[in-house]
Write a structure and sequence with these properties.
This protein has helices at residues 13-23, 87-96, and strands at residues 5-10, 27-35, 41-48, 55-60, 78-83, 100-101, 106-108, 111-117, 123-128. It is mainly β and 148 residues long. The longest helix is centred in the first third of the chain and has 11 residues, at 13-23.
């Protein structure tokens, strides 16, 4: 058994694809025409980190009930976790691509972490290996960041 996809509700497909592919370095796995349950056109858009088994279905909000979910998938908590081998390089690349980090990187027992926002405003943890000697990045706590 494996978890194949999770869904993130977004405002627009193309902006979300650009964010995940260009800013985060994900692969665009599929972008196909599809239909809603009541027959209206939509797209089936899947992105995935390189080499990962689980992908993200980017679903454009459809109607008033889904609009409030944009950026609030998990009620303001960190709900998505992106693990990388080289934290410093990923943090620099993402920062250069305009990804918004909500606090400085810090060290935790489980590794290096920094919270960032996706295109919709959902909170993610960028996670890397523990590196207590990383002096090029701040190791301060989350002074103004809500608990995850």
């Amino acid at each position: 058994m494996q978890l194949e996809l999770i869904t993130i509700v977004v405002a627009e497909y193309d902006a979300a694809i650009t964010f995940f592919v260009e800013a985060l370095g994900f692969d665009l796995v599929e972008d196909s025409p599809a239909r809603t349950n009541d027959g209206r056109p939509k797209r089936w858009v899947v992105v995935r980190p390189p080499g990962a088994a689980t992908g993200i279905l980017l679903a454009r909000a459809d109607g008033d009930r889904q609009l409030p979910a944009i950026g609030n998938q998990v009620a303001g908590r960190v709900g998505f976790f992106l693990r990388v081998d080289d934290f410093a390089a990923a943090h620099r690349r993402m920062s250069s691509a305009g990804v918004e980090f909500v606090g400085p990187p810090r060290d935790e027992p489980y590794g290096r972490v920094a919270v960032f926002l996706d295109i919709a405003g959902n909170r993610w943890d960028l996670l890397g290996p523990a590196d207590q000697s990383a002096s090029s990045l701040s190791t301060t706590g989350r002074d103004n960041v809500p608990e995850t």
